[in-house]
Amino acid sequence: MLRMKALDFIVSATVGSILSTVIILFITLPLLHEAATPLSFSIMKKNTIIPTRRNYTPITARSTNLYLVVLFIAASCGGNNTQSNVTAPGSTKTGKDQVLETGADLLQRKTPLSQINSYLNGFHFYNGNIGAQMEAHHYVSQLNEDVYQAIIYDGNGEDAKIMGVEYIISEKLFAQLPDEEKKLWHSHHHEVKSGSLIAPGIPQVAEHELMEKLVSTYGKTIHTWHTDQQRTLPLGAPMIMMGFTKDGQLRDELLSARDERFDISTEDIRKNRADIPMPKVDPLANAWEKGEVWQVVLTNDPDSAEHKHQGRPQTE
User: Fold this and answer.
1) Of 1, 59, 7, nearest in space to 28 by CA
2) Confidence class for position 298, pLDDT limits 50, 70, 90
3) What is the pTM assigned to this prediction?
4) 311 lies in a domain?
């Protein structure tokens, strides 16, 4: 009886997911269908890409099928082609756990996660050791016009491990940071201009406009699970990461492997972005270039914790 109830629950959950997907498609397809004339795009809040014109035309059965194909292709090239670096130790999930997860997935709201709407692929290295490099998969939400936040994974498949986080701010906000704080941040000018930072799966014109915004931003990145070092659990200290600033720093084999998996050419992307203006980089960013390296050090000295105060209770 318990197995039958569990099976009924899973079947109903699957049917519900399929129906939700169909409803979302038929709601969004009219917004995508436009006349055959060229479109201009705008980056709106949360990096949502929408056409700037509003004279939508009715959908036909033929155009619906076409858009379903386009959406499928876009989804397939935007992820699930990079495995995690490691397999976490532990037993296989039980059937009970899987049923509980399915129920929780249906019943619980995950509002912060639902705000993640952009996928960026790039590369990091350990601050103080440019020879230790890794690919990083960023899943990004935009808080406002000046602040982004990203969860960083070591892959884009179901087995991906959370490596860390990155906070991204505009040059306007970066200019307001204390000088010592700026040394913990890296610029994105080279990552964008070189083509090594990509947004897989979205149209080139949309990606280009997104990169126009990101080229002048700064990131503060901390990795907590070093799967690139084949650590199957998040062991050791968190590490501050940096981004590349010149040609010849990023290992060719890492870039080539990425390009092959995504079926892209970084060199072609670089050429496409040649018209993006190169920003003036704050001299206090990328402090490692000047030999000033900062890293997280674990200590049993409680001084840093003693100076923290109790935060206020959260409100609705």
Assistant:
1) 59
2) confident
3) 0.75
4) no
